[in-house]
Each structure stands twice: as structure tokens, then as C-alpha cells.
Amino acid sequence: MLLIILGDGVVANVVLNKTKGQNAGWIVITAGWGFGVTVAVYAVGSFSGAHLNPAVTIGLASIGKIAWASVPVYIAGQMVGAFLGATIVWLAYLPHWSVTESQAGKLAVFCTAPAIRNASANLLTEVIGTGVLVLGVLAILTPKNLNPVHGWDVGFGPFLVGILVWAIGLSLGGPTGYAINPARDLGPRLAHALLPVAGKGPSDWGYAWIPVAGPIIGGVIAAFLYKAVWPA
Prior knowledge:
Blueprint: H1 2-15, H2 26-48, H3 54-62, H4 71-92, H5 94-97, H6 103-110, H7 119-140, H8 152-172, H9 182-194, H10 210-229
Helix pairs in contact: 1-2, 1-4, 1-6, 2-8, 3-4, 3-10, 4-9, 7-8, 7-10, 9-10
């Protein structure tokens, strides 16, 4: 929920009309998402290990880092949190929906869309972006980089993961808006479909499978690559 409040929130600030941050640009959006990840990981890391992303959860389960039995519960929590976060952003920017003409802009607050619509290329981008995310998270938190005995993983891990997400957004976010998280895209997309957003258009369900499938594929590939390169 915190991730989506800060992530969808920065998009709303940039794309909706008559906000203080209107037209602030891509750097602001990617920074907001990166900082949002950092805040969310710090907030819930001690409770769940910071499972904010189904692609990361499935990737970890695929290499035995967590039990498969825990996966459905994590994903359910991620989806509920994503929907609630999007609803809170809708409320926070309530006066701005009716003064924004762009239906695409309103949809962009909630979920991603490709710059050039090409299903295979868009899927590949999400696979690559999420692969970098999962591989980066696993590499950052490996004991060779951060020694859990000294608590460095707790103190600095979330900050470094936030930088990783910022870097992915800056470098790989151009083609698809870098969902790199099925819950991040699908939960808010459901909110867009169900909430009474003034002047909204369709929720683009024909594209919705790509930011779900791509991150899961990329996450699993990256997890096995990490296991091969950095064996326990």
C-alpha cells in the first residue's frame, strides 16, 4: 500500500492537471518510485521480509529461499495493498480528475502502458527489467556484500534496493513504464476499473497480461541465474 501511495502518487502529481508537480518529468517519476520502494521496504521488512512484489516472491520460492506455501498469502497481501494504495491516491487527488482531459494520463496514474504497443517487445522489456530487479536484490543482500551479523542488510538494504528501482526506471523504463511488479500494475488497474474516476476511459485489459507475465518470467530467470552464479 505504501509503495503504491508514493509510486502512483508521484505519477498523479506529474500527469494530472493543476497539481504543484505537473509536467515535472520522468526523473521525478522514477525518483518517486525508487524512494517509495525504500520507504515500503523499511516499513514492512521486519514483518514479511518486504515481499512487495509477486515476481520477487515467486522468484525466491523457485530457488528455495521461501516456502511455496507462503506464496499465495504474500500475493494476496500484495494485491490488496496495491488496490488500497491506488484508492488512497485517487482520494488524495480527487479534485484533479475532473480538470484533466487526458484519459491516457488518468490511466497512467494507476498502471503502465507501452510507448510503442508491440506485445512481444513489451513482454521482453518487462522480463529484462524484472530480471535486473530480482538479480540486483539478491546480489545486494548476499552476505558477501552486506553482513547480516552486523545488521547492515537491515540498515542499508532497503536504501540500496530503492536505488536499484530508480536505476531500472531511468534505464529500462522508457518502453513500458517498468511495471516490474504484477501487483503494482494489476491492483491499481482494478482500482481504475472500479472507482468513479471522472472522465476516465477503458482500463486497457488487453495489455494487462504483459506487466503480470513479464515480471514473473524475468523474476524466475534472475533467481536461477543468481543461484548459479552465487551458490549458497
